[in-house]
């Protein structure tokens, strides 16, 4: 340990405190001899750094936004989902923290090993089911008496949300999540050992007038292969743009030049009644809203691009381009 050099003023202040009794020399000596120890609970082993926890939180903040949009469209009601907390705790503590009867979905995360748990609070689960069946989104807690139809509908609803989970994790790894089990009693679940560290992501969820929590339990064994990718250094890395080879540019140019486009010129439009349409006969004349001296519009794949005038070339109908149509956002 390096010796610390005190100034004369600090020495005088220290001697003054010792002489006045404000400081006890024996107490200072005893404190120096006492060992500094830090309590560590091996049952709550922290296997993820704060940096990695923040990365997991960012992933699920994106997942919460995607899930909000998805359920809003599926249920056609107000939905709001946000990340409440991200913690690492023993698996046993997670099981004790959720209700004895709840909605549990177990997903595989191929190519990652292990499985994860989505726990939907009964208030949320039944509000979703009520909306699916045409109700107002009321919640009725009767988890212990789920019918087969209700279980199937819930499973299908949660399974459709897997694309959002896949998209949220795509920035770290390409996963193929799959719903493997649907359970209501957490005591029947033993994914990992009781002391295994798991990351629990809690989502505040509001469906119409009902609110509750969605808890996502991710065991350490699932995240272990990608832990290095959860660091700030990985997130800050940016891939350098790849320079295309000249032959690639030539191929792209040739493909664009040979692409076919649908071009048409609208001679004019008019409106008639259904009765007039039914009584149209040969030699009848329809008055168009296009004046003969006005330019026509040429459309390319439904987009108006040029002003043209009609004519003939070699006894064939033709148009001549007069000017380009200026569009906002295009030079």
Task: Write up this protein.
Belongs to the FliM family. Its main location: other. One of its GO terms (molecular function) is cytoskeletal motor activity. This is Flagellar motor switch protein FliM. Keywords: Bacterial flagellum, Cell membrane, Cell projection, Chemotaxis, Cilium, Flagellar rotation, Flagellum, Membrane. The protein is an alpha+beta fold and 331 residues long. The chain folds into two domains: 50-236, CheC-like (Chemotaxis protein chec), CATH 3.40.1550.10; 262-280 and 288-331, Surface presentation of antigens (SPOA), CATH 2.30.330.10. The chain has eleven helices and ten strands. It has helices at 8-20, 25-33, 50-75, 91-97, 122-132, 148-159, 162-169, 220-223, 232-236, 246-257, 274-278, and strands spanning 79-90, 103-110, 115-120, 176-183, 197-207, 210-219, 263-266, 296-300, 303-313, 316-324. It has a six-stranded antiparallel sheet. The chain has a four-stranded antiparallel sheet with strand order 7-8-9-10, with no helix packed on it. Strand 9 (303-313) and strand 10 (316-324) form a beta hairpin. The chain is elongated. The two termini are 70 Å apart.
Features:
single chain; 331 residues; alpha+beta; Chemotaxis protein chec; Surface presentation of antigens (SPOA); 2 domains; six-stranded antiparallel sheet; four-stranded antiparallel sheet; 11 helices; 34% helix; 25% strand
